Amino acid sequence: MQELFNEINWAVIAPFLVIQAILLLVALIDLFRIDKTNGPKWMWIFIIVIVNIIGPILYFIFGRRQ
Amino acid sequence: MQWITLFQKELLENWRNYKWIWVPLAIVLIASMDPITSYYLPQIMEAVGGMPEGASFELPDFQPSDVVMMSISQISSLGVLIIVLMSMGTIAGERKSGVSELILVKPVSYNNYITAKWAGLLVLVWASLFLGMLSSWYYVNILFGVLSFISILKVVFFYGLWLSLVATVSIFYNTLFKTPGLVAFLSIATIMLSSLITKIFGQRFEWSPNNISIYIKEMLVTGSVSADLLATALITIGIIAVLLIGSIFTYKTKELAN
């Protein structure tokens, strides 16, 4: 596993991680600023933080009220 | 000009509800996922294990054009889903909440209202596709081999037409129904049905918009724009125009009937 870790070219993976971090942050900031979401807020916190990549996207599509 | 105002309102709204942030980022992730995973496939296989001792697995030698087409096919499934889901409420949601009445009670023409919505959506879709293919191009160049920037621009142009059609279908159903979920379902059903019809009656619908990615791949391999690709592009633009005029028409009659 350690070997695999070293083999990875970080110039390739870094943009990926940055994008994921931006999505996560924007979703969380919006979640705290918004009055109400579809469904309980704590549920969305879990989805955004735990579900990789698609968690924030799910929140933006289904969590926000139009 | 009224149209410009409505268009700016559309852009501002999409910025305020973060669509300008998450849609491009999501498309970038979708487009760059496949180049990365196919490059690291040997390491992933090794890490996951489960291969019997001595078994060798012949990995295909990916050409840059193959990898670009992988990104395109990911956008065709996940990207289209995102476009449909994020556009399902553009008009339907406003009609449900009564915002559209607030706008249309003023002397705003239906033409301007619909086309401004449509243009706002299209700008977002094209920008996202461009950024997505740019990231795919970046990964293809550092991981697989050289691909010219011009060819990526051509891919964006022709594939953007297909995504525009998807967005226009969604706008069309937006003008017909007030429930966003129904709009999304019908848009996806229409796209799936059209691809099914294209597959079954392949000979008759040679220039169906669903075939555009086949011709795009051809263009990437040969390097020249074929007559089939141009014809398909023209037909796609034609269908977009018909759908747009149709949605203005249905919206007018629907609103007047209410």
From TrEMBL, chain A:
Keyword Transmembrane: yes
Residue ranges of every copy of the Cardiolipin synthase N-terminal domain listed in the record: 22-64
Key words of the record: Cell membrane, Membrane, Transmembrane, Transmembrane helix
Organism, scientific name: Virgibacillus oceani
GN (gene name): yxlE
Name under which the protein is recorded: Negative regulatory protein YxlE
Cell compartments where the protein resides: Cell membrane
Top-level taxon of origin: Bacteria
GO CC, alphabetical: plasma membrane
Membrane-related topology note: Multi-pass membrane protein
TM stretches of this protein: 12-32, 44-62
InterPro entries attached to this UniProt entry: CLS_N (IPR027379)
Automatic annotation (TrEMBL), chain B:
Keyword presence, Transmembrane helix: yes
Keywords noted in UniProt: Membrane, Transmembrane, Transmembrane helix
MF annotations from Gene Ontology: ABC-type transporter activity
Pfam family of the protein (one): ABC2_membrane_2
Any GO CC annotation of this UniProt entry: plasma membrane
Chain segments annotated as transmembrane: 20-41, 67-86, 118-140, 146-173, 182-201, 229-251
Keyword Lipid metabolism: no
Protein name: ABC transporter permease
Biological classification of the source: Bacteria, Bacillati, Bacillota, Bacilli, Bacillales
